[in-house]
Amino acid sequence: MVLYYCQLTLHDNVFFATREMGILYETEQYLHNWALSYAFFGDTYIPLSYANLGQYIQKPGYLDPKFEQNLLYLNPQGIYVFPGFPQRYFYQINTFKAAQVNYYGRSKKFGEKGASRNYPINYGRAKELGVGSEYSTYIYSKKEIDLPRWIRLGKWMAKVKVDSHQIPDSAIALRSGTYACHHPLNPLDLPESQEILLYNRIVMPPVSLIAQAQLSGEYCELKGDDWDRFRRDFPELKAEVCLPVGVAYGAREIANVS
Predict the structure, then answer these.
(1) In the chain, fewer beta carbons within 10 Å around the N or the C end?
(2) Among 125, 163, 156, 164, which residue's Cα sits nearest to residue 12?
(3) InterPro entries of this UniProt entry (predicted)?
């Protein structure tokens, strides 16, 4: 097993509508691991369609094997991307007004008198993660892989710089028992063997994340002299980091279905 530590730096504003309140569209401070997975591997391990192959064309079905761009393609490779943790982040609020294709129809709010068609309103305020925000994440893999230097993220396909570092094996120890994981996790990707005891919930689509969790099961412990030498150049890293073992896309959902 190979474990990478990745630093992400936003070079554009990143926007995705986590919450919609009237004409205000707010972006959550965390980066969802499924979005990061498509950003990292959307043109390598996850097949990219070049032709119309049916009703499932270019629809991200996440955990549905019928969809062409599902995340299950990463499981045989042992690749798993954790959610992005905000080390330093900023917000910028922008007012937008988008042109409509159906220019002959006037947009109306949902529920407004005369709104017989489901036109979205074409103006509003977007609360976006600002340029210079910094994130960190971890990536599991069965073997060494090439990670991209740049990725695109969010509805605006914002440019994000990636600095990846392989964590030495000597700094990783496999443990079992009760442990605290401060890094955000996706509960649907945790195997049944991981019992979730305590957590803070991060409400965001398509699946809410958990943070500051206490779990029971097998985990990777990053601690000791070799870990201290590794994190000298990364002051944001704690003296002890614990990450669950056995995570895979849809691990808990697939187990329940079977």
Answers:
(1) C
(2) 156
(3) CRISPR-assoc_prot_Csc1
Residues in the chain: 258
CB 83 within 8 A of CB 33: yes
Q: Where are the domains of the chain?
A: 2-256
**Per-position pLDDT tens, the chain of length 258:** 899 999 999 999 999 989 888 888 999 999 999 999 999 998 899 887 666 566 665 555 788 887 777 899 999 999 999 999 999 999 999 988 766 555 555 655 555 666 555 555 667 889 999 999 999 999 999 999 999 999 999 998 999 999 999 999 999 999 999 999 999 999 999 999 999 999 999 999 899 999 999 999 999 999 999 999 999 999 999 999 999 999 999 987 765 554
pTM of the model: 0.87
Amino acid in position 86: P
Residue type, 29: Q
Task: Please answer whether residues 14 and 158 qualify as being in contact, where contact means their C-beta atoms are separated by less than 8 angstroms.
Answer: yes
Within 10 angstroms of residue 98's Cβ, the number of other Cβ atoms is 10
